[in-house]
Every structure is written in structure tokens, then in C-alpha cells.
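We read letters as residues; the fold follows as C-alpha cells. Both lines appear below.
***
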Amino acid sequence: MSYRHQLEQLYEAVTGRGPADMRLFKLSRGNVLTPKRRLNIYADGYSERLRAAIATDYPALLAFMGADAFEAVVKACVEATPSCHWDLNLYPIGLPELMPPGPARDLATLEAAIAAVFWAADSAPLTPADLTGIDEAAFAQMGFMLRTASRLLHFETSPNKYLTAHRAGDSALMGAGPEYLLIVRHDHEVHRHALESLEYDVLTRLSQGKNLTEAITTEAAAERLPHWLGRWLTRGFFNQS
């Protein structure tokens, strides 16, 4: 039996996806623990580590749902999705996909986006200096791609307001939305920027590869562009190239 096959068999057994092959287990010192008991130690530790990883990334969701409901969601997530990535930091990000639509899922989506942006690859930001010497016609045809470590989000509830209150130690209820957000890592910190609905629409079109002229589709958006552009560039919304 090859070492790779042994690892595959152990993984299948620990995650409950296949029967245990007891040939994997040599006798323990003094044969105190049976092979079955030793396998259960692996299985219990594996599940507990995955549950702890999820709980670390969703403190606001825990407060919102309550301990019992949150633990039930986490347990269901672990049972449904064995870890398939070498980096355990990325495992909890998929939790919202297993939740039904509603305020709790919106809050989970926001906290998952924060974690994803924190761990995403870095990219150099576009700055005002990078636009020096570009004439108006060329500027209008430019494309502006969002930072690699960023997420655009739209909610019909208000998870960002809830999260802000939670982090401040204030009690809060999840109110109605909508909320439009850009989560971006800039200067080694994750920032949550509230957006106007028009601004969100423009940034969405830019993220889809449209140039500035194609992204600005209304007179109202064109009027707001100078205000938005200053904020976009000083707060690191876009990739340098």
C-alpha cells in the first residue's frame, strides 16, 4: 500500500466518506487504544478544528443568531463540506452558500467577504499620480479594474450597520436596506466603504471590463463622477495595471 493511498484512506475514514482500513494502524504502545478509538481521535479533532475555524471568522453572526442556532449551522457546514484546500484560513468562506436567504445569510456573506479580502493576493493601487499627463479623451476610454483584494456587495438588509454596531459593543437589530459596499484591502487593512446605488452600478460595470464612458450611463452618474473619483483613487479602489 503506497503512502499516498494510505493518506487517502485515512482522509476518507476521518471525514466519514469511506470505511476505515485498520491496516493503516500499527499497534500503539502497550496497545492501550484500539485502532477504532485512535481513528475517532483523528475524526473528532478534525471536525473540532473546522468548527473553530468557522467560529473565528463569524463573531457578529454568532451574536446575531445566538450560540445554539450558530452552532447548528456550523455543524451542518462541517458535515456537508470537508476541507479540500491546503489553507485552513480559506475554509470558512463558503459558509453563506449553505444558509437560506435572509438577514443571517447577508451578515455571513459580509463577514465571509472580509475574510476573503484579508487573505486575497495583494496588488498595487492606482493613484492620482498614475493619471498625470492623460488627456480627457484617453481618460474617458480607460478601464479601471478593482483591486485583487476587494469585493462588491449589495444587500436588501443592513448587515454592515449591524456589524459596525457589534464591533463597537452596541446592541443592534438588523434593519432594512438596501446597502451597497466595497470591501477592499488597502495599506494592509481591510476597509468597508458604503457606496451610493449609482456608484455601485458604475463600479460593477467597471469590474466587468467596461471603460469609463461605457460605465457612466446616466447624467446623474456623470455629475457624481468627480466626487467618486477622488475617493476611489485616494482609498485604493483600483489596480495600478
Residues 1-99 form one domain.
